[in-house]
Give the backbone structure.
Amino acid sequence: MAAKRPTLDTQERSLFSRLGELRVFLELGSVVPALPALMNAPRGDGHAVLVLPGMLASDGSTFVLRQYLKALGYQVHPWKLGRNWGPSTEIRQGIRDRFKELSDRYGRRISIVGWSLGGIYARELAREYPALVRQVITLGSPFGAGYRVDGEPDASLAARLRPAPPVPCTAIYSKTDGVVPWEACLEIEGPQTDNIEVQASHIGMGVNALVLWAIADRLAQAEGQWRHFDRSGLKSLFYPVGA
């Protein structure tokens, strides 16, 4: 489904959506009961994965996600840059250095998972180093909004950020996101892009069982054989079709 243009100048997150972010406690609590299903998710070749946190978050926020991917056999790495205060020159260079360090260490393409602002960083890394990135997975990342550092949308910035980098990209988003407009989190439809809708809060995406399973499914694909997300069978009960 093609991405819809967000009406950011008029769109306001409702009180209901904001309060819905409290679901994070339910999402965290659901991980253990869901473990049998999660550990039966598709498994890949154990390649390296770099995980980038969202705005104002640190590596602690991605702990559950990283531990899950490690349990599936991947070489998973945090960004090691402390708290994500926003796209400063130091942060941008720090991400590049961290990515190149891992790329040199493994000598093969690396997948990048980015949460919210971390997903925007991930897409920009892939734009800069497409030959070194295997795929990008974003979690509630509003790259279509073009938010400036002050939080205001910028149409010219959105126009630059919205097109996908030249690597396979999957956007995982929630229509009940209480932090960012979900319409701004969608990839433009293409042969190397996909959008997966989940029932999740924004701040709970890193601990949401549906999100974790979808990430595992994406990472399990053989290099050079990326395909769109398969919603057939029982998966159709949990992952709706279209935006």
User: Anything to note?
Assistant: The beta strands are 48-52, 75-77, 110-115, 133-139, 169-173, 193-197. The CA atoms of residues 107 and 132 lie 9 Å apart.
